[in-house]
Amino acid sequence: xxxxxxxxLFNPASxxxxxxxxxxxNLGGMVLRNLMGGGYPGRLLVVNQNDYDNVHGVPCxxxxxxxxxxxxxxxxxTPPDTVAKTIKRLGxxxxxxxxxxxxxxxxxxxxxxxPLMYSVREAARETGIRVLGPNTIGLMVPAxxxxxxxxxxxxxxxxxxxxGQSGTIxxxxxxxxxxxxxGFSYFLTLGDGMDIDHDDxxxxxxxxxxxxAILLHIENIPNARRFMSAVRxxxxxxxxxxxxxxxxxxxxxFPHDLPDGLKRSDPIYDAMLQRAGVLRVDGLGQxxxxxxTLTRMRPLRRETLAIMANGVGPGVLAVDRLADLGGExxxxxxxxxxxxxxxxPPYWTRKNPIDLNxxxxxxxxxQAIKILAKDPEVANVLVMYxxxxxxxxxxxxxxxxxxxxxxxxxxxxxxLGQSTVMDAREEFYRAGLPSFFNxxxxxxxxxxxxxxxxxxRLLTETPESFTDHFADRTHTRRxxxxxxxxxxxxxxxxxxxxxxxxxxxxxxxxxxxxxxxEVLEVFAVERRPIDITIIHEQACHxxxxxxxxxxxxxxxxxxxxxxxxxxxxxxxxxxxxxSHFPESGFLGFAVQRSYQHVGGIEFSVGITRDALFGPLVVxxxxxxxxxxxxxxxxxxxxxxxxxARELLRRTYMYKLLKEHSLKPEEDIRAVSxxxxxxxQIVIDIPEIKGLEISPLLFNEQGAVAxxxxxxxxxxxxxxxxxxxxxxxxEWIVLPKSGRRVIIRPVLAEDEPAHRAFxxxxxxxxxxxxxxxxxKHFSREDVAQMVQIDYDREMVFIANAPREDGEGEETLGTVxxxxxxDNLQCEFAVMVHDKMKGEGLGVAxxxxxxxxxxxxxxxxxxxxxxxxxxxxxxxxxxxGFEIKFNTEEEVMDLRLVLNEPEKDWQRERLGKSxx
Length: 914
Known about the structure:
By secondary structure, this protein is an alpha/beta fold. It has 29 helices and 38 strands. This is GNAT family N-acetyltransferase.
């Protein structure tokens, strides 16, 4: 990911259009006319091999080499076989960015046989030029009068950025947005995305102060890890709304190789976008409806909804839609009911939704809103109006606007109809109140706001500590490595059972037998009913894709209590195995005591691996139910208890557990702990390709794994979200006190200790760190500090056991934020007041300097208040260059970590320093 030269793309002082002519159907000519028609203020040039002096009045030269100046941006509209060579010449001429509008390059091949678009990428990499496209509609920046597209109309200025992949979809979005009065800060499509991709643009837009929201149309994501890292950062500061097309295999333009155990790729995208804090919607209409509520409504204090209308019908439609989407009606307080009863007819139902009656006046609408504004149970109100003979829709709209001012209510409206209510809708638009054409769309938009707030909340939830991040798993790794060295890409049933038990997952006590005689020997000792399962090689692989015949295979016989029954069952199991899996090697029998578990509700949980998205945690129903209910839900590791509970909550089996378990809360916790553990297993052992526990049942001690299968892969599969980097842990001994301290990356579970650390600091220490006095740190403030993306930022904390023996305490912290190009990281450090003079600040800073240097960051920078003498002395000791910044009245600190390798890096850093 990189924002290199994107400023030249979005704010070019000069543009060359390659291939433009005055022919009506010429692509370059269309782009040039749009640039001129949009009032582009910069310098324009045309390059065309024909002998033109000018094109549409713009000077023209025959070759790139004949250009009198090096434009910031080149727009290429020439035939496919000329593009790569043109890119190379532009790069050599010092052009920094190019838009390739030429289409068909994925279907046209070079002499080497590869599509021409790959030749474009190679030429761009060779010369350092950044390329948008090929096959893009282009770029609009309305506030800068830049319309570098072939679109049929321009966009109006606004504060919403749109990044699409399809030019035809983008054209309709412009039309749609114009009709709704939605303006754009940036509008572009990626096309084939050979160089500039979603993650580059999201990084740029996340930092752009003129962009309040980001809209994404996604067809495919070539680099899931980079995309995830960029969008998680962006969604913390502004709404990100996405439409992902290609939801079913028949509509996928880029076929997706499905991981074992899944029938569609779409749930993976669902899980990814939700984990990133993105609101996913089902289409362009929903995108703009959601945009209305997310940008025009306040954050929701409550998720319930009050509804009022001048009639029963609209309210009923709204309630039906709310129920369909899992929403809830607000409960009106007794005071609100009594106050409304004084205004409404005697036959009013005295409940939500509120029927104001057909002839409701503007005054009645205003009074009803003011009553609800005083109700502590009401936070969101949908106000609806159906045209009537007795009242004027515009006057009622004005009354709603006036009554809403100064209240804490989130008010949004639905004026039904078309021709007679357009003025009222315009009034709402000017007042900043979302307005919709029908109750269903209004309620859907509200619930999108609810969903967005829920996924945002997941980004800042503080999980309870469960997984032991620091446990030694050397034995488990040896088992896996031994299997791989032997060329065996699965673990035996015994090995799989031992592995999950080593991580604390309870399993059914199991005895392994090589033949029927050994089974009989076990029974002779046990003298109680047993269950027998036949084990063969194929059964050691999780999520088997069985044929219809194999689905009738019976591999287990239960509750056997005689030698005769055991012998008959062993023979039967052998016949079943040979009939259904003749090519699978026989590995023996697994024998378990019957009645070791309570049974009943059966879960299937595990790990599968996707080629693009890496390991996935899956959870759902086990047994025959799994095909009937298609209950398998997905989450991305690493998981904590909050995320695990959210994954479980999405399954159908969760409802059964809540309704039928004797100990629902304990069982929910047990399943959630199992999911977190599975997440940790695949992080610790990335060679695991798949792991399935089916079924996971419950006994008096909690969840218990019955059957476990694990298979392996040659290459490790890394999660697309960087997990806790355990290898960075380091123990040190403080020289003055001899206290033993661990310096390690921060965890989300550190939030309580981190908050206590900040609140115990002196006012002066807080001022030195935050450049202001702060008395209070909210849970959300500290959650942002500890829930980090290890790909983008790093926080090392110094922890040690408390001196009173009550748990651990945080003694110091250092953090860095690194830009998308890994050129520069900004640091901040703070040490507990009682630890001053212990050398902890030096240890923390040196740890961070070593880490950033090792990951290739070019320089570290920071700002320090001029009177912060201890920090300035520390910086001098560590070799920082220190200068006084007269504009900001702070001391600028700079430390070179690595030498820049590219000219553009030196240029960027030079500007930054200047």
